[in-house]
Amino acid sequence: MMLKTVGDILIILAVAFTVYIASVMIHRLRGVVLRSGYMEMFRYELMVCAAFLVLALDIRFGFLTAAGSVLLRIPGWILRILATGVTVLVLFFSGKVCAGGLVRTDAAAKHVLVLGLALENGEPTPDLLSRLDTAAAYARKHPESVLILTGGNPDASGKTEAAVMHEILRRRGVPEARMLLEDQADTTRANFRNSARMIRPEEPVVLISSSYHMDRAVQIAREAGFTQVLRLPAPSAFLPFASNVLSEAILEINRRIRKR
After folding, report:
1. Taking Cα atoms as reference points, which of 138, 118, 252, 242 lies closest to residue 191?
2. Quick one: which of 115, 114, 120, 116 has its CA closest to 156?
3. Quick check: 213 and 237 in contact, CB under 8 A?
4. Which has the higher per-residue pLDDT, 198 or 121?
């Protein structure tokens, strides 16, 4: 009886989570410039949601191994193991993503890397504005610092992420002389590669990104040659947070698989 109740609760949660993921991603796909990358991530997220739902249904009804024949039960056991494995793996890395966003390095550096984020309908998202709030606050506290604003992906008008960030920070009082633009990259990896040519990567650098992105961003920065990365996570918007955490977990799993 207890197992059935747990199964019922898990089914409700799995369906609700799937609806949530679909609503967040469909809204995002309507506005972003590079839809192909987000569409691919949407497919992966739906696959994870499907694994959650299959596991929940199996806990409730035990249908995967209910066949009378042993031969027919074998595929069910395989599917049960796969669904369980995917669920455990995603939950583990999601926890890792959340924990990584809580780490903050209380130290200063001359250069600050502010990572961009895809514009939606030509406008900065709440998470990008939060990164800029964090950057502006750091610039006021450390007047000797130089901000490197990263991000290409121009919208229909030709404005890149870095250009939009530059305009917003200028309005918030950050002097032109204290901002450098890296507006050619279309990925986080390219952001760091290009930025490493603008400054000395062996020197300390403050990294500003959304909390859910911080853990993976630090790893990519180190792979690009930055040896002293100081973390300064920006607060993340509440509504899309779980979707963003799931995306980061999937990307981290994919990165580890490819390394093998």
Report:
1. 118
2. 120
3. no
4. 198
Q: b/e map of 207-220 (b: 16 or more CB within 10 Å)?
A: bbbbbbbbbbbbeb
Is the pLDDT assigned to residue 197 strictly greater than 80?
Answer: yes
Rounded to the nearest integer, the mean pLDDT of the chain is 92
Q: What is the pTM of this model?
A: 0.91
Assess contact for 59 and 7: CB atoms under 8 A: yes
pLDDT 10s digits, 25-73: 999 998 887 788 899 999 999 999 999 999 999 999 988 877 667 777 8
Work out the burial of residue 59: count CB atoms within 10 Å of its CB; fewer than 13 is exposed, 13-18 middle, 19 or more buried.
buried
